Amino acid sequence: MQRLFIALAIFLKLTSSAFSDGQLIKVGVILGFTGPIESLTPDMASAAELAMKETAGNVLDGKTVISVRADSTCLDAAAATAAAERLITAEGVVGIIGADCSSVTTAIANNVGIPNGVVIISPSATSPALSTIKDKGLFFRTAPSDARQGQVLADILKVKGITKVAVTYTNNDYGKGLADSFGIAFQAHGGEVAISASHEDGKADYSAEVGALAAAGAEYLAVFGYVDQGGKSIIQTSLDTGAFEKFILADGMISNSLIAAIGSDLNGTIGTFPGSHSSGSTKFRAVASASSFKKIDGLYMPESYDSAALMILAMQAAGSADRSSIPKHIMDVANPPGHKILPGELNKALEILKEGGQIDYEGASNVRFTKVGEATGSFKEIEIRNSKFETIKIH
């Protein structure tokens, strides 16, 4: 009986492998399922996988793209690198969606993706430093750079008449890049950054950091951190001690979990994150709703869907899921000329490409790539009113 079970197990493994190689195309989805933005990443992954489900059985004459998930942790470069190596060597993925946070995305690209010739499309890594990474044409991102977010945020504060702020940022590529771009833009508008200080994530007590920030004498505190880690704790400590009552947030802090944790004391808080009210974003919400998503407008969900869609469409344009072919066609499907493609129209796009036509994938986030393969993007200006995020304007 034991021999029978062993033989059956071997047979199933072999047939499963053959089916996988013949009909399934693996793409890695590496996001911080644990760590400082873990409340955001499940929806991001589901959005990427939505594009895969939409095109199931229609890619490259009958194939289906499936995801293999891995945990980037958002912060631990060594763990993220090891996870990416597993995806490439053990799982045999043809491309990677992710990572999420800029520092681990940089590590994965430099240590694993680029050396192995594997394309990477990040939906949320926004550090300005990634614009100049030596990627050999293998790194793309559907989220706009923080060089632009810092400028947009500074413009908003100028309009509101806010002239002095304290800044705290998470001590990594994302935090420093955003703090620098914001500081330069804000000072160019005549504003004063009273203090700009980094913080480490994962601490139990941020009293010393908040005390130093308050001592600089600013009424507003800009928090460029992570919603499930130091950023949230700094805001709570500020409120508990009376150090600050007015806050400015960027993308890494925009989550309903923040409001759930802190409550109405956040009313009046302002901030920015990538997004639009385009026909594509409206269509994405409809597609997600039809798929019974509990959340249809989460942070970086549109960009995640677009990252997977671009990967799939590039395969079709290449006529192959070969690792070396995919990156050569991403710019072709992302930018004009061609038929405009929105969410829910991926199978239409596959058919156009199969027949030798061209497409212009606008997707859920108005995809338009610069020459270095990153989205120009737009940003939502938000304010917390009645314990809810409300969009004020698109920039």
SSE blueprint:
Layout: H1 2-23, E1 24-31, H2 41-54, E2 64-71, H3 77-90, E3 95-98, H4 102-113, E4 119-122, E5 139-141, H5 146-160, E6 164-170, H6 173-188, E7 192-199, H7 207-215, E8 220-224, H8 230-241, E9 246-249, H9 256-262, E10 270-274, H10 279-290, H11 301-318, H12 327-334, E11 339-341, H13 346-354, E12 359-361, E13 379-385, E14 388-394
- Multimerization status: single chain
Strand order of the largest sheet: 7-6-8-9-10-13-14
User: How many whole angstroms does the radius of gyration measure?
Assistant: 22 Å
Distance between the termini: 68 Å
Which geometry do the CA atoms define?
globular
Strand elements, count: 14
Looking at CATH, the homologous superfamily of the largest domain is Response regulator
What is the residue-averaged pLDDT? 93
Number of structural units classed as domains: 2
Give me the strand/helix succession.
HEHEHEHEEHEHEHEHEHEHHHEHEEE
SS strand fraction: 15-25%
- Class of the largest domain in CATH? Alpha Beta
CATH architecture of the largest domain: 3-Layer(aba) Sandwich
Explain this structure to me?
The protein is globular, with a radius of gyration of 22 Å. Residues 1-20 have low confidence and may be disordered. Strand 8 (220-224), helix 8 and strand 9 (246-249) form a beta-alpha-beta unit. The chain is built from 13 helices and 14 strands. The protein is an alpha/beta fold and 395 residues long. The chain starts with a helix and ends with a strand. It has helices at residues 2-23, 41-54, 77-90, 102-113, 146-160, 173-188, 207-215, 230-241, 256-262, 279-290, 301-318, 327-334, 346-354; strands at 24-31, 64-71, 95-98, 119-122, 139-141, 164-170, 192-199, 220-224, 246-249, 270-274, 339-341, 359-361, 379-385, 388-394. Helix 11 crosses helix 12 (327-334). The chain has a seven-stranded mixed sheet, sandwiched between helices. Strands 2-1-3-4-5 form a five-stranded parallel sheet, sandwiched between helices. Strands 11-12 form a two-stranded parallel sheet. It folds into two domains: 24-145 and 278-361, Response regulator (Rossmann fold); 147-274 and 378-394, 3-Layer(aba) Sandwich (Rossmann fold).
